[in-house]
Fold:
Amino acid sequence: MRDGKPMTQKNMTGASILWECLEREGVQHVFGYPGGAILPAYDALKGSKIHHILVRHEQGATHMADGYARASGQVGVAVATSGPGATNMVTGIATAMLDSSPIVCITGQVGSKLIGSDAFQETDITGVTLPITKHNYLVTHASEVARTIREAFYVARSGRPGPVLVDITKDAQQTTCEFDWEAAKPQLPGYRPDLSPEQEEYEQALELIHNSKRPVILAGHGIIISGAMNEVREFAERAGIPVALTLLGLGAFPASHPLNLGMMGMHGEAWVNHTIQEADLLLAFGMRFDDRVTGNLKTYASNAKKIHIEIDPAEINKNVKVDVPLVGDLREVLHELLPHVETIDRSEWLDSIDKLKGDAAVRDIQNLPDSGHLYAAHVINDLWRETRDGDTVVVTDVGQHQMWEAQYYKHEKARSLITSGGLGTMGFALPAAIGAKVARPESEVWVVVGDGGFQMTLCELATIVQEKLKVHIAIINNGFLGMVRQWQEFFYERNYAATPLLNPDFAKLGEAYGIRSMTVTERSQVVPSVQAARQHDGPVLINFRVEQEDTVYPMVAAGAALHEMIRRPSKIVETAADE
Amino acid sequence: MLNTYVVYVENKPGVLTRVASLFRRRAFNIDSLTVGRTEKPEVSRMTITVDADHDQARRIEANLYKLVNVLLVENITNQPAIVRDLAMIKVAATHEARSHVLELASVFRARVVDVAPESLTIEITGAEDKIDGLLEVLRPYGVLEMVRTGIVAMRRGKSSAPVSASGSDLDVAEEDVSHSV
Structure:
C-alpha cells in the first residue's frame, strides 16, 4: 500500500494506468493539448488529482515542462496527440536534450493495427525524436504502460538528465489489464547512470590541484543538476581558486562572492576569458567545453592542465583533451576530494586577475547616467536592483537580451536563471516561465525576452491568463533580430538582411489578452514600471523600447581565440559625457 | 585505424536503428555492421568496424553506452580474436577458364556453391584479407557479382563478460531503481 492505494488493481485501462503512474511518480501538473489519438487519456484525466494546464501550442507544453524541471529539479511532463501534436514538440525536446533537462513527453499514437499505414495524424515520432531524446518508447499494449512510465521517469532524472518520450497507441490507452505497480519495476540492464572515478584518478587530480599556481574553476550547469553548490563553494574557498561560470552555470556560485569572476565565453567578461587563457589548471565542474565557451580549440587554455568532473563519459575528450577525467556525480566526487584539498595561498594569482578586471571596466555601462537613451543593460540592471532581494527567477529567451541578462543580472542562487543555452531556442522564455511559475508559485518570475523570440510563442499569453499566473514579461524591444543584426554588423558589412522587425503594439496586444501592459521608453520609467508590475495582482507586460542598434560586448567571434575579443568602442562611453 | 567492436544489445525492436543513428549523427564512419542472435534469446550481438583514432574510439564506446538498450561494448581491436567475413563471388567462367578458377578456389579453401554455363559462384569464409586475396586473383576472369556479410568477431579463449538482459551482473541500474522509487 502507498498513499492508501492498492498496489494492484484489475481491469484498468491503459489511460487510467498512465495517470495513476504519473501520480505515483510525484507528478502534480502536466502541460498538454488534446487531440484524437490521446483522447482516451484525456477522458481518464477526470479521475486523477493531476492538474492539467491547457497550452496553446505543443511546443509551449514542452518548454513549460522544461521550465518546470529547471525551476524545481523535478521531472516536467508534457502531453500531446499524435502527428502534428507530437511533431510540434520536437523543438522543445531538442532544447531539453541539449540542456540536460528532465522531461517526459507523452504522445498519443494511432491504433497499433494502423501503424505504418499513413493513417490520419500518424507520424513515427519515436523515429523522429530518436536522436533528440535520451530514450524513447512506443507502447502498443496497456500492459506495457506502467513499466514504461516508471522507466521513463527513472531515465529522465537519473545520471545526466534528459527528455524521454513515450508514444502510446490509442488501443493501448483503451484496452484494460491488471495494474501491478510493484511488478512494473524498471528493467534496464544496460543503463548505468551511477559511475564513479578510480582512486588513482582522485590522486592525480589532487596532485594537479596542489601543484597549480594559476587554477580556475569552470562552473557549469552540472553543479545545479547535481545540487553541488555548497561543495563547489567550499572547494573554491578552501583551495582559493577563482570561479568562472558558463551561461547555464550562472547561479551555481554566488555572483557576489569574492572568488566569482563572472561568465566566460563568447560574451563573457574579458577578464574571465583572459584568466582562462593564462591559467595553468582548469577544473571543469559539470560543463562540456561548448564551442561558445572555448572559442578556437587550438588556442584554448593551451598552457593549462585540465581536470574534468563530468557525469557523462561521452563528454570526456570530446572537444578538449583533458589530463584527468573524473567521471561521476559532481557532488559525490567533490565529497571525495574535499577532505584532501589543501589550502594554498594564491593571492598573487587572484591579484593579477583583479588587475585584468580594471582594464575591462570601460564597457561597463550599467552605472552610466541617463543620457536619454534606453539601453537594455539599463533595464536589466534596474530589474536586478529591484528584485535582487527576493526569490526571483528570471527566464530569458535567446539573443542579445539573453547575453545582457547574463552580464548585468547578478545571480546569487541556483535555479534563479532559466535559459536555453545549448540549442539556443527562440520562443523558449515565455512558456518556460509558465512552467517555472507553476513549479514555484511563491517565486517571482520574470520573463526577459526579445521582440523576435516573444512573437514565436506569444500565444501562451492566453495560458498565463487562463491559469491566473503572476508572470511578469519584460520585452526588450529593439525592433531588430538583435543578435543576428549584430553578426551582420560585424561579419556581413552591415547588410541587415531580414533582421528589422515590424512589430505590433505589444502593450495593446497584452491588453487584448487581459494582461496589464505598459510601454517604457526612458530610463527614468524603468524602476517605476518594475515596481508597478510587482505590486499588481496578476501578470504584467512591459514593452521596453530600447536602443535599436546596440551591441553586446565583448564578443569572441565564432572560431576566434578566446582572448581575441571585439571590445566596445569608446563611442558609447561618450554618450555618458553629461555625467 | 580500423576498430572492431563487439556490442551486446537488448533484442528489442528499433535497437539497430538506435545504434546506426548514433554513428550517423556523431559523424563516426561505419565500415561494416553485422547483427544477429546470440546464445541468449533476449540478447543480440553486433560486430561493428569503424575507422577511428584512439580518442574517437573511446568516445564511440562511451556513446554506445549512452544508449539505454546497449548492454556491453568491447573494443577487441587489440585483442586476440577470431574474425570472419563471408563472401559469395560470381565469376565469369567459360569452358577454358573454369579449371583455373576451380584451382584458385581450392587454394583459398573456398567452396563452389553454384555452377552455371557461363559462371561459377564461390563461397569463401575467412579473415577479410584472405577474401580480398581471392578477389584479387579472380578479377582477371571477370567478377560478375559479389556480396560480403561484413565481419563477425569473437575473442579467443575465455568468453566475454557474461551478458544478460535480465540476469545478475549488469543489473546495477535495476537495483538502484528499487531504492529510488
